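INFO  loader      accepted 1 record
INFO  loader      residues=134
INFO  predictor   begin
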Amino acid sequence: MYIVSGCLAGLCCRYDGGDNADERVMQLVSEGKAIPVCPEQLGGLTTPRPPCEIVEGKVLSDQGEDVTELFWRGAEEALKLAKLAGSKKAILKARSPSCGIGKIYDGTFGGNLIDGDGLFAAMLRKEGFELETE
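INFO  predictor   done
INFO  writer      dumping tokens
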């Protein structure tokens, strides 16, 4: 069983209210082989919401609001769901402050990438999950 980013499963949960539908991920969900989650929504953030990036260990909106606590809460709730499902694999949205694997935006909101993981991805990695992006 996979845990997948909700936006990749076609759910309109991106920060801008859109999705990042990926045919392979949608197929896994339709076959009952994957469970979609959106850590940001699970943490209490609205959709749409301001874009956010990780800046010096904190998650900040492009308006300077510190939403780190909501991101952590959502990552913890999504991890609970992953464990309940017996999952050990995840397909997550690249570059996201929640789900990015290996590369995330640098916090300048200029589209620049740095090495690092989003909060949910880091939590899953620590728990020994196999991680991949779309």
